[in-house]
């Protein structure tokens, strides 16, 4: 029936190559399937736009310094590199399947490590699920909990997958914005100046609210929610019988003595919180794509159902490498030799380097308290250079980011950055179209290249 309903048009593109010694006949086939029925599932309606594609393409076309995407462009620590090498060259059984919900040595370590931090006795089989990155953890959580018509409160600016994941599960995203309160004159704005209005937040809860997504430290702002802010969120979740999906992938990346607090550790919250983490962000190895969810068994059992009927299993060797990393970290945790202490110290220096460099060319960075990122306020440029190339209805930050990439300065072009409006829901994008996100988890050489480009750019802008 499918075959009858479908008409397949075949376009042959590219040359037919003659058979040469050692080379096989190669044909390039592009097939376009045209169906009488609607081809994509309706759950994809409105979520097919990918804000990253255009910028990744531009970064390949131009000689840019990539400060856009959130990954380190330097090696993971030696112990992590060795752990991965050992996992791929040691025990041959690591080439095979392991337990579906996580490689047992890893789930055991995650349970003991995070159990102490959350003040809970965690069962490695019931309270821990290993996933394909934190992304996989989020997807599993949304699929397991969000039903048609359920509402999910998303605090924006928000990591851009929360909205499509809510929609794909049939839910309705309900947005509440952190709003900036300008710092006193002469002081640098910081991510802590962005706050929730308690009355507005409370007004977003209804009888349909199933979950609230909390991301601390926040991407893209770098805000670390204070204990008082978490208590506000926790109180409302309890009052309205709501699950909290806590995305804490940047939990080790906190600066200036700020403390990350897991909302699951607050009174009454363990039983309604899913805490999500990422080995990629923890050990500077984002390509490993190992993440996890921690939570109470009565919620986790539904995530296990999704996991066993979708991904089923994450690569054993990557899990074994992460287990070894945690074993190493467990021996040093709380001491000066801890990677979770040393890495943020190093990244704080990077952050300060970047802030200084941006200020030296007249840009206005906000000091982040945590995460890989800082945002820069470009509203001064918006008033002095309102008409950058681009469509009139394009948010200003998008036009600015493209101009920054393409604008030639000497023999090179600029830096690749991320526009902050993509972290806001569509109705709010216009209000927040004058910020750019920079990633400072970059090598010294990348930061120096940024300095040079910014200085050339400044020289060009001066009359
Ligand atoms: C806030 C946030 N959550 C989740 C993820 C995904 O993490 P992972 O690479 O472990 O899938 C990212 C990645 O950038 C992120 O910024």
Automatic annotation (TrEMBL):
Q: Which GO terms describe its cellular component?
A: cytosol; mitochondrion
State the pathway, as annotated in the record.
Amino-acid degradation; L-kynurenine degradation; kynurenate from L-kynurenine: step 1/2
Q: Which keywords are on file for this protein? A: Aminotransferase, Cytoplasm, Lyase, Pyridoxal phosphate, Transferase
PANTHER family with a match to the protein in the record: FI04487P, KYNURENINE--OXOGLUTARATE TRANSAMINASE 1
Q: Which GO terms describe its molecular function?
A: cysteine-S-conjugate beta-lyase activity; glutamine-phenylpyruvate transaminase activity; kynurenine-oxoglutarate transaminase activity; protein homodimerization activity; pyridoxal phosphate binding
> How the protein assembles, per its UniProt entry?
Homodimer.
Q: Which cofactor does it need?
A: pyridoxal 5'-phosphate
- Determine if Transferase is one of this entry's keywords: yes
Major location (coarse): cytoplasm
What this protein catalyses is: an S-substituted L-cysteine + H2O = a thiol + pyruvate + NH4(+); L-kynurenine + 2-oxoglutarate = kynurenate + L-glutamate + H2O; 3-phenylpyruvate + L-glutamine = 2-oxoglutaramate + L-phenylalanine
Q: What's the protein here called?
A: Kynurenine--oxoglutarate transaminase 1
Looking up Pfam families in the UniProt record yields: Aminotran_1_2
An example Gene Ontology biological process: response to bacterium
Q: What is its EC number?
A: 2.6.1.64, 2.6.1.7, 4.4.1.13
**Places the protein is found:** Cytoplasm, Cytosol
Ranges of residues in domain Aminotransferase class I/classII large: 63-381
Q: What's the superkingdom here?
A: Eukaryota
- Sum up the protein's function in the record's words: Catalyzes the irreversible transamination of the L-tryptophan metabolite L-kynurenine to form kynurenic acid (KA), an intermediate in the tryptophan catabolic pathway which is also a broad spectrum antagonist of the three ionotropic excitatory amino acid receptors among others. Metabolizes the cysteine conjugates of certain halogenated alkenes and alkanes to form reactive metabolites. Catalyzes the beta-elimination of S-conjugates and Se-conjugates of L-(seleno)cysteine, resulting in the cleavage of the C-S or C-Se bond.
- Protein family: Belongs to the class-I pyridoxal-phosphate-dependent aminotransferase family.
């Amino acid at each position: 029936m499918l075959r009858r309903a479908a008409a397949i048009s075949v376009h042959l593109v590219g040359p037919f190559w003659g058979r040469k010694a050692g080379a096989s006949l190669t044909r390039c086939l592009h097939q376009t399937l045209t169906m009488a029925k609607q081809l994509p599932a309706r759950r994809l309606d409105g979520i097919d736009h990918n804000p990253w594609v255009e910028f990744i393409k531009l970064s390949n076309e131009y000689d840019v310094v990539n400060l856009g995407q959130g990954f380190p462009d330097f090696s993971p620590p030696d112990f992590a590199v060795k752990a991965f090498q050992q996992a791929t060259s040691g025990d041959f059984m690591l080439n095979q399947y392991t337990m579906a919900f996580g490689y047992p040595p890893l789930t055991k370590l995650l349970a003991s490590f995070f159990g102490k931090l959350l003040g809970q006795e965690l069962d490695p089989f019931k309270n821990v699920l290993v996933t394909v990155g934190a992304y996989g953890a989020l997807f599993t959580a949304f699929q397991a909990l969000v039903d048609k018509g359920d509402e999910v409160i998303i605090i924006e600016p928000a990591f851009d997958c929360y909205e499509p994941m809510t929609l794909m599960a049939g839910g309705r995203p309900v947005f509440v914005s952190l709003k900036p309160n300008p710092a006193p004159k002469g002081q640098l704005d910081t991510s802590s100046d962005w706050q929730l209005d308690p009355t507005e937040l409370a007004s977003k809860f209804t009888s349909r609210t199933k979950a609230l997504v909390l991301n601390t430290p926040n991407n893209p702002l770098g805000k670390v929610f204070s204990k008082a802010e978490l208590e506000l969120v926790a109180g409302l979740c309890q009052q309205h019988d709501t699950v909290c999906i806590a995305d804490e992938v940047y939990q080790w990346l906190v600066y200036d003595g700020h403390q990350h607090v897991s909302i699951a550790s607050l009174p009454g919250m363990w039983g309604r919180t899913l805490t999500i983490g990422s080995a990629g962000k923890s050990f500077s190895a984002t390509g490993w794509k190992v993440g996890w969810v921690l939570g109470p068994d009565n919620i986790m059992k539904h995530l296990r159902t999704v996991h066993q009927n979708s991904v089923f299993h994450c690569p054993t060797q990557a899990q074994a490498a992460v287990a070894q990393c945690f074993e190493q970290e467990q021996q040093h945790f709380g001491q000066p030799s801890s990677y979770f202490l040393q890495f943020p110290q190093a990244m704080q220096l990077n952050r300060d380097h970047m802030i200084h460099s941006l200020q030296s060319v007249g840009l206005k960075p906000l000091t982040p308290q945590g995460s890989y990122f800082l945002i820069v306020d470009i509203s001064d440029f918006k008033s002095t250079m309102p008409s950058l190339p681009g469509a009139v209805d394009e948010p200003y930050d998008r036009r600015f980011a493209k101009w920054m990439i393409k604008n030639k300065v000497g023999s090179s072009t600029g830096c690749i950055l991320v526009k902050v409006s993509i972290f806001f829901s569509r109705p709010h994008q216009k209000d927040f179209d004058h910020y750019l996100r920079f990633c400072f988890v970059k090598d010294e050489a990348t930061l120096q290249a940024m300095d040079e480009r910014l200085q050339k750019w400044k020289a060009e802008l001066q009359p």
